[in-house]
Amino acid sequence: MTGKPLVALAAAAEQVDGVPHVAVREVYVRALEQVSGCHVVVVGGPAPDLAHLVDRFDGVVFGGHQSNVLPRWYGGEPGSGPADADRDELALSVIPAALRADVPVLGICRGLQELNVALGGTLRNVPGHTEDLSLPRDEQYLPAHPVHLTEGGVLRRLLGEPSVEVNSLHHQAIDRLAPGLRVEAVAPDGVVEAASAEGAAFCLAVQWHPEWYAATDLVSVALFTGFGAAVAARAARRAVI
């Protein structure tokens, strides 16, 4: 294999003028291409065959979306928020397959929640963490609170700081941490803000949105650069097989 690493980016279901679409926000593609140095393939759910093809990629990314992970996947009470069952099925099948194949995984917002549920954890609703829609979009994604980084963790090594400031735009959060996951960051209110999979080459997910200022915010640059290094290493290994 030659050229840039190839990364699968999970899409979400959208309705545009009454027509079903699978879509991703351009900021994710731009961050992965320009900061992580990857080629991006957008994949929509449920895509049951993708779990069997995941080892053809150098990394997989599960970004944020306005929909919630359906409670039926983790034994929770039925909720009233927006849902995307196809995206759920995509994530819950591909994440374990990627970990088994040692394919790097990056999760953002919903992606952290999907990682936790895919490995057996649960979620809870967290009112008061959504964006202020009266503000311009660029201001909604500015830092809103600090998070403390776990000493010795993946995130602490990437960022080199004991705490950093992050934004806050989410409806759900981790309740019970899944077996095999390690807490990487915690907010002052106790919300788990990041987690990694123990023993994985690279599996890191954060609750905040680093993609919006991926090229200028130092925390975001470190995250996408770290993921880029992991997928580049996998691409190099595959090139000599």
From TrEMBL:
Q: What is the protein's name according to its record?
A: Gamma-glutamyl-gamma-aminobutyrate hydrolase
GO BP annotations of the record are: polyamine catabolic process
Q: Which GO terms describe its cellular component?
A: cytosol
Q: State the source organism's domain of life.
A: Bacteria
PROSITE patterns in UniProt: GATASE_TYPE_1 (PS51273)
List the Gene3D superfamilies hit by this protein, alphabetically. Answer: 3.40.50.880
Classification via Pfam families: Peptidase_C26
Annotated organism of origin: Saccharothrix texasensis
Would the keyword Hydrolase turn up in this protein's UniProt record?
yes
